[in-house]
Amino acid sequence: MRGLLVLDLPFDQAGRFWRGNLHTHSDESDGALSPAEVARRYQNAGYDFLAITDHFRAEYGFPLTDTRALRTPGFTTLLGAELHAPRTEAGPKWHIVAVGLPLGFAPPGPDESGPELARRARAAGAFVGMAHPAASLLTADDAESLDAAHAVEVYNALADREHRGDSWHLTDVLLNRGHRLNAYAADDAHFQPQDPPGCVAWVQVRAESLDPDALLAALKAGHYYSSTGPELYDVRLDDDRITVRCSPARKILLTGGAPGLQVVEGEGLTEVSLSVAMFGQGYCRVTIEDADGGRAWSNPIHLGDLPTATATTAATVGG
């Protein structure tokens, strides 16, 4: 029996949730809109922060789009880029989201590989994400080589146009192989006429303020969840059961490092308790789905990290 364990997920962290998008493009690369117009659209849609991650390629002059002038008291930006270098098994270039890059980050060297470029971005202070693995046809070998990644882009709204928006399968394979990775959802918005609309996938980051450094630290710690609609209010473990509180849902489920699932289905579900026994000392994760088909995902919960206890105990789960 584990007793009541407070997981190192965002819900009991100090501060509040801030809604943001981590993968966006402007006309500094192949987007249709100026950085100012992109930021205006997200702010008008109720977002608290935005990272414009233009393609860091020679044909665009290796832009690291400076959005600091777009910050206001109620809206901020994180500086970043989508990095590219040769190559993956199926594609000529890697796609790597790096949020929190310093201005002046150097372009890739002529012999620098994708994993090497990602390591340099992480060393420079960035949160590193594995962009749209399903759309890029990344293999497990590709993904394992990107050892600087903090997280996998498990949902990409632009890639969903080609039915390759969901990358949870690869993420679960990596987690089962012992890689400590979190998961985020993003728009990859370009605002081109043929594209899906922006502002449909996001992260909810728990931090004490909208200060960019506070948001970046929370991302690296895994103090966030991802959504395309519903809200997660709380996730906690009590005597080998996960209790989830959320906005009204039609399905709440646990999946993870074992085939199968624990699930409750119904109308207007706002709180359920699900057994974690089938996951042993592995990991599990929460998914909720609302009546409109929107989903929200917790980061992985590593059960093997949690001490066995009979009294109330705080536990640290990897981020």
Describe the structure in your own words.
By secondary structure, the protein is of the alpha/beta class. Helix content is 15%, strand content 32%. It has 6 helices and 18 strands. Mean pLDDT is 93; it is low at 309-319.
Quickly list its features.
18-stranded mixed sheet, alpha/beta, 32% strand, disordered C terminus, 319 residues
What's the layout of helices and strands?
Elements: E1 4-6, E2 16-21, H1 35-44, E3 49-52, E4 55-56, E5 76-83, E6 96-99, H2 114-123, E7 127-130, H3 133-136, H4 140-145, E8 151-156, H5 168-176, E9 182-186, E10 202-207, H6 212-221, E11 224-227, E12 232-238, E13 241-256, E14 262-275, E15 283-289, E16 295-297, E17 301-302, E18 313-314
Parallel strand pairs: 1-18, 2-3, 3-5, 4-5, 7-8, 8-9
Antiparallel strand pairs: 1-12, 2-10, 5-6, 6-7, 10-11, 11-16, 12-13, 13-14, 13-15, 15-16, 15-17
Beta-strand content: 25-35%
- Total DSSP helices: 6
| N-to-C span | 24 Å
Task: List how many beta strands DSSP finds.
Answer: 18
Low-confidence stretches: 309-319
The main sheet comes to: 18 strands, mixed
Based on CA atoms alone, the radius of gyration comes out at 19 Å
Query: What's the assembly state of these chains?
Result: single chain
